[in-house]
Specification:
Length: 330
């Protein structure tokens, strides 16, 4: 790989970066410094043209002052290297730490919201007009509870058929039964398909593992694999639900309020847009069991530690729906 980057120096050490669920990353130390080597594995975003689009977006965002880490160019001026049919990119190594919402002050939460708003307005400048949404046709259709009930039954069967049940299986069964009851009670609140949703270019995966801090300063937004056209306010709500969820499954609403106020101001988003996004993301969370699907259908347990807080959040959010909506809309 480094033979394509003669200015990067000779390799000394290559260590895998353990964080991240979809792609592989490595810290490469050479005679001239340290770099982040990214191996693009995700089939939906790992083709060369998609990666090049991500790279160009970050290069242009950097020119606007957005904290990003664009890839290096190789000897031919390319940013993607194909070896054995696989795509790789070399980025500068950014020293920094990930900070969850519990580690942010209210003022820093406000700054985080402003940062995401700046990302959205910056993408609007560098990517041009947003056209069709990313993803499959009908991407704006909200989950159908009929399908969710069938999935709940499938997952309940999987939890019961395990030879040796543990505390996770017990919690999973409890949450599945609880969620079915909630969906039966709130099935009439399924969001309508929006006629003209407020879409725009979004990062697509804005959460604590994709924002690097140096002290209190955000120094790099990384992992642009999900760059695409989506309802932008929904990204703001989803991000807050990850950053500011507490271990018991509650959102830190004072921080959410500061974050959302700054986001609305920076992105030029109205309260109606945020209110609609809150409703759609709440419904999405109420119908979502991705962690259990990973565990029981794909036999992948990497996301298991997230389940207690994530599953509790859907229940708490339903109970505190109005308070959450007010936090996002002011």
């Amino acid at each position: 790989m480094l033979r394509h980057y003669p200015d990067a120096g000779e390799p000394l050490v290559c260590r895998p970066v353990t964080q991240g669920l979809l792609n592989h990353g490595y810290r490469v130390s050479t005679t001239r410094g340290s770099y982040f080597l990214k191996h693009h594995l995700d089939a939906s975003t790992g083709d060369r043209a998609t990666i090049v689009r991500q790279h160009r977006a970050t290069q242009r965002l950097q020119s606007l002052g957005v904290p990003v880490a664009p890839p290096l160019q190789d000897a031919e001026g390319d940013t993607v290297t194909e070896i054995g049919g696989r795509c790789y990119a070399l980025h500068p190594w950014i020293d920094g730490l990930h900070r969850a919402g519990a580690q942010l002050t209210t003022s820093e939460s406000r700054r985080l919201g402003a940062l995401l708003g700046t990302v959205h307005t910056g993408l609007e400048q560098v990517m041009g007009p947003a056209t069709e949404p990313s993803g499959p046709p009908g991407g704006y259709l909200s989950p159908d509870p009929v399908d969710t009930f069938a999935l709940i039954d499938e997952l309940l069967t999987a939890t019961r058929e395990r030879c040796t049940r543990d505390s996770f299986d017990e919690l999973a069964e409890h949450r599945l039964r609880e969620r079915r009851a909630l969906l039966e009670r709130h099935a009439d609140r399924r969001p309508p398909t929006p006629g003209v949703p407020a879409t725009g270019w979004v990062h697509g995966d804005f959460h604590p593992l994709n924002v690097l801090y140096r002290g209190t300063e955000p120094v790099a937004i990384v992992d642009w694999d999900r760059l695409g056209v989506q309802p932008r306010a929904e990204e703001a709500v989803r991000a807050a639900a990850i950053f500011f969820v507490q271990p018991a499954g509650e959102l830190d609403l004072p921080k959410v309020r500061a974050y959302a106020e700054a986001y609305r101001r920076a992105a030029g988003a109205g309260t109606a847009e945020l209110a609609a996004a809150v409703h759609r993301v709440w419904w999405e969370r109420l119908n979502d069991f991705w962690i259990l699907r990973w565990r029981y259908c794909l036999h992948d347990r990497r996301a298991d530690p997230q389940f207690p807080a994530v599953s509790a959040l859907a229940v708490w959010w339903t109970r505190e729906y109005e308070a959450v909506r007010q936090a996002f809309t002011g």
